[in-house]
């Protein structure tokens, strides 16, 4: 089992009791890490509090950090709180993301801007803030949550695909800048994962999706979280600038 005891992990966009954000928080806690749970909306407070209690029950320490990660001042305050409580940051998982799907012809400019800001610009702001701390520590990991859509594109998701593809380019560029400073940067590209979105699909739609996947099933959020924990561990100490697809073989 991977042991991250004593490390400090920030997961952005973890304001849901379900999905990849929550799975990331719990997987890192089970590996022994202390967790910073970031969320933006007050509507997420009940879910975040529940998640924090689960982390404590596992045995980890936790900091709840409300911040809009698209705003530099919010992020700066968040890292001030992290350093005040833990004194370090070992892993940042840029998981914050939204969708506003629409065919390009009908997509509003604001819908494009909102998705790119939340999914891509936030990773820039958070990574830059974390980088100054990690450079002083001479160690750290940054994991950017991309998507299979960033590799393949998808009709009706020009904004989302652009943001997720941008994360891949950012990952590789950051990795080249930071590799000599013992800071590794990687990306994960999930495929179809059980979520609130997939719960809304009909059985016929789910069947159509599974038929496209070589492993013939929709993935669990825990599979993505386990990949992130691995990338944060010493087992991955010679891996940087990579995009790990967790998609049941859909993109290969």
| Fraction in beta strands | 5-15%
Strand order of the largest sheet: 3-2-1-4-5-6-7
The major beta sheet can be summarized as: 7 strands, parallel
Q: Structural class of the helix and strand makeup?
A: alpha/beta
What percent of residues adopt helix (DSSP H or I)? 40-55%
The rounded distance between the terminal residues' Cα atoms is: 28 Å
In the predicted model, the low-confidence regions spanning at least 5 consecutive residues are: none
Shape: globular
Topology as a string of helices (H) and strands (E): EHEHEHEHEHHEHHHE
Beta strands, count: 7
In short:
This protein has a 7-stranded parallel β-sheet, sandwiched between helices. The chain has about 250 residues and is of the alpha/beta class. Helix content is about 50%, strand content about 15%.
Give structural notes.
The mean pLDDT is 96. The two termini are 28 Å apart. By secondary structure, the chain is α/β, with parallel strands linked by helices. The chain contains nine helices and seven strands, in the order E-H-E-H-E-H-E-H-E-H-H-E-H-H-H-E. It has helices at residues 20-30, 45-58, 72-85, 109-137, 148-152, 158-178, 196-199, 203-212, 221-232, and strands at 8-11, 34-39, 62-66, 91-94, 140-145, 183-190, 243-246. It has a seven-stranded parallel β-sheet, sandwiched between helices. Strand 4 (91-94), helix 4 and strand 5 form a beta-alpha-beta unit.
């Amino acid at each position: 089992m991977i042991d991250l005891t004593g490390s400090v992990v920030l997961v952005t966009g973890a304001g849901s009791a379900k999905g990849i954000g929550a799975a990331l928080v719990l997987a890192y806690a089970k590996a022994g890490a202390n967790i910073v749970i970031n969320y933006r909306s007050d509507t997420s407070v009940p879910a975040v509090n529940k998640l924090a209690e689960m982390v404590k029950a596992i045995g980890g320490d936790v900091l709840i950090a409300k911040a809009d990660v698209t705003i530099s001042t919010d992020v700066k305050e968040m890292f001030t709180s992290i350093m005040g409580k833990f004194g370090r940051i070992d892993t940042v998982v840029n998981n914050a993301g939204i969708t506003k799907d629409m065919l390009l012809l009908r997509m509003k400019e604001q819908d494009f801007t909102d998705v790119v800001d939340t999914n891509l610009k936030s990773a820039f702001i958070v990574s830059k803030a974390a980088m100054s701390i990690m450079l002083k520590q001479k160690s750290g990991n940054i994991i950017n949550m991309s998507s299979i859509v960033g590799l393949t594109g998808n009709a009706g998701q020009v904004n989302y695909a652009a943001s997720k593809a941008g994360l891949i380019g950012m990952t590789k560029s950051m990795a080249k800048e930071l590799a000599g400073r013992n800071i590794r940067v990687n990306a994960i590209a999930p495929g179809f994962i059980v979520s609130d979105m997939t719960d809304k699909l009909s059985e016929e739609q789910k069947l159509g999706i599974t038929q496209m996947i070589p492993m013939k099933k929709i993935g669990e959020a825990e599979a993505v979280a386990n990949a992130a924990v691995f990338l944060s561990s010493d087992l991955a100490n010679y891996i940087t600038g990579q995009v790990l697809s967790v998609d049941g073989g859909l993109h290969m």
